[in-house]
Design brief:
Number of strands: 13
Protein name: cAMP-binding protein
Order of helices and strands: HEHEEEEEEEEHHHEEHHEEH
GO molecular function, one term: DNA-binding transcription factor activity
Distance between the termini: 28 Å
Strand order of the largest sheet: 1-2-9-4-7
CATH superfamily of the largest domain: Jelly Rolls
CATH topology of the largest domain: Jelly Rolls
Pfam families: cNMP_binding (PF00027), HTH_Crp_2 (PF13545)
CATH architecture of the largest domain: Sandwich
Organism: Chondromyces apiculatus DSM 436
InterPro entries: cNMP-bd_dom, cNMP-bd_dom_sf, Env_Response_Regulators, HTH_CRP, RmlC-like_jellyroll, WH-like_DNA-bd_sf, WH_DNA-bd_sf
Shape: elongated
Radius of gyration: 19 Å
Helix content: 25-40%
Length: 257
């Protein structure tokens, strides 16, 4: 039996989602970062020396990738260090014989496929744009060369790798010790912290996540996620605006973790 929620889209819903969508700019062709003054390098480079940042900015290119498009594919040679620019979100996933395993989400300023800095010659995962995203690519040879000479950049790499390790540990802990409702609550609170937009009805999670995607991330089924979201909505903890969720009562949701 299939469960599908029936959500009415109100005029307020349309206004909220339209406001989110209007923040995106039209697609542009790839261009040198320096030629598009609005493009900012990933915060990953904030700890690097000025000379390093200048070298990266001079060599990096930027392009806009449409939503639903692969930013890079799995098992292909690595030629660049990739990050998200001034807008957009991406989903990382690993393609296996039995299906696709979600690895996580990345937002503005985040690195994608940073394992290439550790010597991997091919991509170990696929990155897919969740919406129109700005992608900044730094030639891998240059990135590795700068790592050898810039202690600040090496420190930044360590910080990224430790953060990724913590994400994995937290996910394992959640899978082992929380039920589906607890894992869903944890996921929604994290999503609201990262992508939340204040609205009169609560904090809107601007990322258009499907029930199936959420189910993959928290280790459940789409039907169970749909039923649990419906229960939370009936209790007034959640609401919807089009295809996006609104967190109305964070304290009540936190108690479900």
């Amino acid at each position: 039996m299939s469960y599908r929620p029936v959500f009415a889209v109100t005029e307020m819903d349309s206004n909220i989602t339209a406001d989110i969508d209007m923040r995106r700019s039209p697609s542009e062709a790839p261009a040198p970062v320096g030629a598009r003054g609005g493009v900012r390098l990933s915060s990953f480079f904030d700890q690097a020396a000025v000379a390093t940042r200048e070298a990266v900015a001079a060599a990096a290119t930027s392009e806009v990738v449409p939503g639903g498009t692969a930013i890079f594919e799995q098992d292909v040679p690595v030629d660049a260090l990739v990050s998200l620019g001034s807008r957009g979100r991406a989903r990382l996933e690993r393609v296996m014989a039995g299906g696709v395993i979600p690895l996580g989400y990345r937002g503005t300023g985040d690195l994608l496929g940073e394992s290439c800095l550790g010597g991997h010659q091919v991509r170990t995962e696929r990155a897919v744009a969740m919406e129109e995203v700005e992608v900044v690519r730094v030639p891998l040879a240059l990135a590795r060369e700068l790592l050898d000479t810039d202690p600040g950049l090496r420190h930044a790499v360590v910080n990224v790798l430790l953060a990724r390790q913590r994400e994995v540990e937290d996910r394992i802990e959640s899978m082992l010790f929380r039920n589906v409702e607890g894992r869903l609550a944890e996921f929604l609170i994290a999503a609201a912290d990262r992508w939340g937009v204040p609205t009169p009805r609560g904090v809107l999670i601007s990322a258009p996540l499907t029930h199936f995607e959420i189910a993959q991330v928290i280790g459940s089924t789409r039907e169970t996620v749909t039923l649990t979201l419906g229960a939370l909505r009936r209790e007034g903890i959640l609401d919807v605006a089009g295809r996006r969720l609104i967190l109305c009562d964070r304290a009540a949701l936190a108690q479900r973790q």
